[in-house]
Amino acid sequence: MTMASNPLLYAIARQTRIFLINEMKMEEVSENLEIVSPKKLESHHYIVMIGVGGTADFQFIMSFEKNLMDSLTKKFIYGDIDDKDREEVREDIACEVANTVIGMAIPYFPSKGEGITITPPNIMTYEQIMEKNSDSLIYVVDLKTSAGNILTGIILFEERARMKEGVDNA
């Protein structure tokens, strides 16, 4: 794993922290926005993926530990949830948080949000390991909170990035 710099992920991680503090009223959110570039991305239990296209081209990943999802669910929902609905509600909240954060971050991208498109969020609910291949780059920030960790990450595909920049492979 190497230390890295990525303005897209920095904007996302920063807005994630702001969202957790300002909107979710979480008091203990790490100030550390250290970006690393691992060979493997080891996610937490709830994994939301959003495709970002247009002037930016990457896969956005937000992954939540179970304890953090329990805390966020309590903050989103007033009253009780039937046990049969609990998992579906957690998944919906995970998607809503990821969608909100990416929306908050887009104006801070290098393009200032010009020409950005996003797909609806997709969710997986199990821990997963994603390995990079020779044509991809993975950048992650794992934010620590008193309720659990939230991982924000992006996967860039070098070939598509070069094509967008007009770089000739020849």
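That was protein one. Protein two is written in the same sequence-then-structure order:
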Amino acid sequence: MVPVQIRSQPQTYYMQLDTGYSETIFYAVPDTVKNALIGDFKGSGPFYLPLYVAGNLVTMSGIKIKTSPAASMDGPYPEIGTIGQNIILARVVFIDFVHQRIAFIKKEDVKPSYLEGVSFVPMHYRDDQFFIPVTINGVSYPDDYFYDSGSSMFTLITTSAVWQQITGSTASNPKNDILHVTQWGSIATLLGAKLLDRLTIGPLNIDSPMVYFQQSGGVAGSSLAGANYPVKGIIGNAAFYDCCMIVIDAPNNRFGIAVKHPVH
């Protein structure tokens, strides 16, 4: 979750960072928050919403407040929306999973010291996704898997056919892991098994991580099998937990990884 502040609100709110989502949206927030958001658009256009994301000022030329799902305002981390690609594409995003820090920095403000220890691979932005090269079981895939920060609990998600090939398992295997997860208010069922060998992303090697595919349920069109563009799978945040800082450098079409703690 990313801490954010609205210009006219003293409270800190939180938003999910979802690199797989094209827009930045707000959920069905209480009227006090909604009025604060809309209030920033009073006067003559063009309109720009000032939003402080992780302490960095960003602006948006549009705003969308959804009627559902409802914002989760209870607890210490009131969640009011999702940060999407319209903010990410114009900045260099640093996500330090080891120290739980995040920064959104303009390209011209990135200092060389920020990139010490970072190894970069080419990143291809196509079909509204950030595709990065990976190697699975010794086979290289230069443009088939995209990084999705919204898939936080997963290392690798793929289709049923690819899943069977790279795990050696079948959907009827009683040893499969079964997960029921929420997708925008809908429940999806995913089956998981361990990769036969190794997943490599730049300098990062992960031996036999869990791999999942969506068996049923979920939001319409959410399954990779129904994608209308060429794709084999998704790399999620779990690949980088406890070990890495990643850099999503959309202005320079590259994806960086700094391995702070080796993965065993």
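Residues 31-39 form the longest helix (9 residues). Keep this in mind for the problem set.
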